[in-house]
Amino acid sequence: MIKGNQGTEERIFEAAKNVFVKKGLNNSRMQEIAQEAGMNKALLHYYYRSKEKLFQAVFNSVMKRVIPPIAEMLEKEIPLFEKIEFIVDRYINSLISNPQIPVFFIQEIQRNPQQIVEIIKKYGIKPEVFFQQIENEIKAGNIIDIQPQQLIVNLLSLCVFPFAARPVVQGMIFENDKKKYDQFLFERKKEVSKFIINSIRKK
Amino acid sequence: MIKGNQGTEERIFEAAKNVFVKKGLNNSRMQEIAQEAGMNKALLHYYYRSKEKLFQAVFNSVMKRVIPPIAEMLEKEIPLFEKIEFIVDRYINSLISNPQIPVFFIQEIQRNPQQIVEIIKKYGIKPEVFFQQIENEIKAGNIIDIQPQQLIVNLLSLCVFPFAARPVVQGMIFENDKKKYDQFLFERKKEVSKFIINSIRKK
DNA sequence: GTCTATATTGTGATAGAC
DNA sequence: GTCTATCACAATATAGAC
Q1: Which of A202, B75, B134, B194 has the most CB atoms lying inside 10 A of its own CB?
Q2: Residues A3 and A82 in one domain
Q3: SS3 for B146?
Q4: Using the CA of B37, which nucleotide's C1' is the nearest one?
Q5: Do the Cβ atoms of B159 and B192 come closer than 8 Å?
Q6: Which of B72, B73, B74, B198 is nearest to B134 (CA)?
């Protein structure tokens, strides 16, 4: 349960975030959120009017915290290999701290695909800078020929998938051992950037 | 709508599969399935008793069709690089034919994480054969030193993620252009195995 | 087996006392 | 602002005619 020292509205918000992020919109009950916040469910409506509005508040807040760092990293002006190491390390680290975000995001986008367009517009994600950097490195002969789009999707896949599919992977290849899987994720920070750089570096 | 030449039970089942796979359990309505099957919703209960049971029938059927081919490919006795090309090509191809499966699977596992254990037991997925093969290649000095678990998760990530996160990726780096993204996925069959083999091959 | 009509239940939302 | 009690509605499930 959420601790009681904050204001009521904040307590509701924190409780809603916990529940929504874990279960998604449709598997979450207002009753459950109220209980998590240590109050009656009528109060949720008093402060947020409807379940949908409460959810939107949570979703927007999570996006606001999650998207800008990524957008920023993509535009950072440092050498490519350094940048890959930097992004992978930071990104996996932040996913270790917030492991449910990928599923939360995938589910919500599935439910309401429209909003992805708004999110991109709102936070001004521009992968073009990163694309350009990759193309420059190819022309300079420093890395092998690869479509920038393929490379960036590879990077995202390698970072995010192990969190989105955790129960499956943990069950399939780690005998459902939570600690082993945590260790695996921790090591992955180095492994993934090694894997990528190994693949695109000319030897 | 489902065509009417099959038996009623099969019509229901096909309709339910269409709806459930697209929307997941909680966003699907019995009414909608009935409509899709061209009949009254009372019939769904007559044949399948409850929504939950109908869903389980669909889920089990999908798993039965999706899991064994993967399990089999992992144990196939062919050289490692060939095997990687084979798995990636076949796997991405099957995802192109059934693009909603990853999200369907992730959502359901999230809702009911218990069952993953049963599925693994039921279909006898054994990655050990593949692990052993990788370790042998490392000892023989044919590929670089890498944890087999990391490699296999890399392979799965690179294949599955672009389907699970399609709306996001399509929006972020393909200006929401469906055709471009389909083309991208098609090319990926070759790109992914090249990417992996490039990374682990000793040069 | 298939339908219409109805019962039952779960849950989001509101009214009104305090 | 916070609570209890209640409403309203949607969706699953069943009864019963044919």
Answers
A1: B134
A2: no
A3: coil
A4: C2
A5: yes
A6: B74
Domain membership of residue A165 (yes or no) is yes
pLDDT of residue A200: 98
Is the pLDDT at B6 greater than 90? The verdict is no
Per-residue pLDDT reduced to its tens digit, A134-150 = 999 999 999 999 999 99
Q: Distance (Å) from CA A42 to C1' C11?
A: 13
The amino acid at residue B143 is I
Contacts of A144 in chain B (CB under 8 A): 198
**Chain D bases near protein Cβ (<7 Å):** 1-5, 11-16
CATH code of the domain covering residue B9: 1.10.10.60
The CB-side HSE value for A63 (13 A sphere, CA atoms) comes to: 22
Mutate to test the interface with B, among A104, A146, A195 (most CBs of B within 10 A): A195
Tell me the chain B residues in contact with residue A184 when contact means C-beta distances shorter than 8 Å: 149-150, 153
| CA gap B117, B108 in Å, rounded | 13
pLDDT tens by residue, A183-198 = 999 999 999 999 999 9
Confidence (pLDDT) at A129: 94
Q: In this complex, which residue's CA is closest to the C1' atom of nucleotide C11?
A: A29
Task: Give the closest nucleotide to A26 (alpha carbon vs C1').
Answer: C11
The 8 Å CB, 24+ separation contacts for A176-180 are A176/B117
Compute the distance between CA of residue A92 and CA of residue A186 in angstroms, rounded to an integer.
Answer: 8
Q: How far is the CA of B87 from the C1' of C9 (A)?
A: 47
Please report whether residue B58 resides in a domain: no
Number of domains making up chain B: 2
Beta-carbon separation of A153 and B162 below 8 A: yes
Q: What is the pLDDT of residues B180-193, one digit of tens each?
A: 999 999 999 999 99
**Is the same domain home to A98 and A183?**
yes
Q: Residue A151 is part of which domain span?
A: 63-200
**Same domain, yes or no: A43 and A125:** no
The residues that bridge with B201 in the sheet, in sequence order, are B143
CB contact under 8 A, B144 and A188: no
Q: Kindly state whether residues B44 and B84 are assigned to the same domain.
A: no
> Taking all atoms of strand D, which protein residues have CB closer than 7 Å?
A 8, 39-40, 42-43, 46; B 28-31, 41-42, 45, 49-52
User: The whole model's pTM is what?
Assistant: 0.96
